[in-house]
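ok trying again, last paste got cut off:
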Amino acid sequence: MTTVIQTLLSYVTQYSIPDSHYESESYLRRRFFESRWFEVYDFLEFAVEIDGKYISLRSDLLKEFCNGIFERDFAGYRFIDDRISPIINEHEIKEIEESIGTRDLHH
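nice, full thing came through this time. structure:
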């Protein structure tokens, strides 16, 4: 299992993220919107692992926000724990959350 540092280094090395704040934000925005849907999901999973360690980010709020978007757009996925997982219905989400002992993250 890779650590956040290894994942971050992989992104930096693979995609050569610029050093300046403005250029790096523009780069990440462009990469995000040019990516295929599953690459965006991978990036979101990466982002929730950061959770304030390196940047100001509250992963619980990001997951809640994403789950609201997934639900609104009828996506067959939700954040469950720190992973975006395929779901069938609300009952299935509750079962999975109970089995891994997490709080209700899909609302």
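cool. Helices lie at 4-15, 21-34, 37-50, 59-72, 90-100. The two ends are 29 Å apart (CA to CA).
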